[in-house]
Amino acid sequence: MTTDIKICPECDAEFFAHISECNGCNVPLVHPDASPIATGELQMPDSDEALRLVTIEQGDIAKIGELHNALNKRDVPSEVINATAAGGSCGGGFLLQVPEYVKETAIAAINDHWHKLHPELGDAVEREESGQCPACGFTLDSTPTNCPDCGLNLGLDDPADDDCSEPSGSCGPC
């Protein structure tokens, strides 16, 4: 019976119902049925347009499966789609899709999930926003493709490095 337990919204640990706070996270516990949909925080839309699925992540099955499970724990509806079978990217992989009306909630839940697994991400984001390499903190004078100090690829791809063998535009972004 779900009323006999409470869960921590941060770490998903289960506790007896008489306990009110997670001893590891120091946050109030909630009942399992206190999901965003059950509490009315997320309202089902009236229009079919809002029910349209949108892709919020793409990757291998391990990554997408982990994110799908994280969304399920928060009662955010999501689906895993095989990208190759769905006519998606030529790189294969899987897509994590959610109804459009929960897109922002899902993205926030995924960001929260990653920051719990990797708390150092917060520091990396702050360094990147201040013009430093997110890995080593080297001050970047321009927008290089790689950090001149540690060699980290900064995600600023050079179009000349495009090695996709598919005709242009046939498979979407690679």
UniProtKB/TrEMBL annotation:
This is DUF2007 domain-containing protein.
